[in-house]
Amino acid sequence: MFAAKHPIKAVLGAHIEMTRAPGRDYAHEVAAHPDEHPLELPVESISELRDGLKEKLDVPEQPQIHDHFIIYPVAARTE
User: Fold this and answer.
1) If DSSP codes are grouped into helix, strand and coil, which group holds residue 64?
2) d(C-alpha 69, C-alpha 17), whole Å
3) Does position 69 have pLDDT exceeding 80, yes or no?
4) What are phi and psi of 45, to 5 degrees?
5) For residue 23, what pLDDT is reported?
6) 3-state secondary structure string, 4-23?
7) CA 43, CA 2: separation in Å to the nearest integer?
8) Structure pTM?
9) Which helix H or strand E contains 54, and what residues bound it?
10) Spatial distance between the Cα atoms of 1 and 21, rounded to a whole number of angstroms
């Protein structure tokens, strides 16, 4: 794995919709994020995300809540 062989100082997230409180996000499409989680995620988030993506992710109503990110399953496309 790349992260095991290279020094990494931070991971940059995308769509930061989390609050600074661990595992808490903002409501969908809320206009303001007054106490938003910083863009930089801890390096440990790489392995935590990898492990989370190995779990069963077929129920959209059951997100995986982690301290620094949330994995929201999406229903399979029928097309």
Assistant:
1) strand
2) 9
3) yes
4) -65, -25
5) 94
6) HHCCCCCEECCCCCEECCCC
7) 12
8) 0.79
9) helix 45-54
10) 30
